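note to self: dont lose this again. the chain is below, predicted strucutre after it. 153 aa total, dont forget to put it in the shared folder this time
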Amino acid sequence: MELQVVIWLLYCGLLPTVLIAACLFRYNVLSLVYFLYLLLLPWFLWPNKHTIRGHTGRFIRAVFWTALLFVLAHVCFQTVLYTFPPLDVTLGSNCSQWDTVSRHVGLSRVPLDDPWSVLRLLCPDLGVCLIALVTMVLCRRLVRNREMVAAAN
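---
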């Protein structure tokens, strides 16, 4: 019973809050995807032993894998940008066409001397990824506990 309450708080409270924060802290295509997930969230029932195997479980997994993909895209982009100097020259200054396009997509150059910009650009993806992962793990534990109780009876 306590596990259901924790899952409900994560799914109905913390996940929408993190998705809203991801949309508000930065505005680009990645935030648009999170906004679409936020709009889809009320259509799915809150997770329990029945809905986690259906559409709600697939929705939570989709949110997790999307957020993980965005985190990996950020990490790869920043790694290539700082280790491959010709790409840094190609992107140019803040007014170049490639820099503008990459910023609109959501992969912008992270200024290492400004920690608040780093937090604003990277933490929303990490937050969504972690909350979705914790929700998935707890839902899996809930289903496993219910199956063990049913097998014991």
